[in-house]
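Sanity check

After download, print the first record. It should look like this:
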Amino acid sequence: MTDYRTLIDAETWAFIEKTNSYYPPDTIDYTIEEQRAIYDRMCREFFAGYPQGVTAETTVVAAPTNSISIRVYRNAVPNKAAMVLYIHGGGFILGGLDSHDDVCAELCARTGFDVVSLDYRLAPEHLHPAAFDDAMDAFEWAAKTYD
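Expected structure tokens:
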């Protein structure tokens, strides 16, 4: 059997172990709300802050069927060649604007691109294709705004 500890560097293992430390073995049996609370707590504790020169503004975009909260990250030295639409992880069940806040800020800092993160509707409260519709609406807003 492969010993994965020999294939992954120590820093990555530390990240994996820290992540796993937030989740009890029976997390799968928790309610969605309880799982979200664990995930949100973990993300808050991983938050490293914004890199120097990055600011963020949260606003609401009116879409055809829904209003979508977005957060726009801007660099003090912008690169107008492109922008990034960031659709956070969480399996369409977990996460939001705050869960990947510092990830988006870091993307902005390293590229100079504006980064637009969206707070799409989560399942199971909102069935498929709600999250996809929100992502498409945010994409269309970004395409008009950054054209």
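If your output differs, re-run the checksum step. Summary of this record's structure: The radius of gyration is 17 Å.
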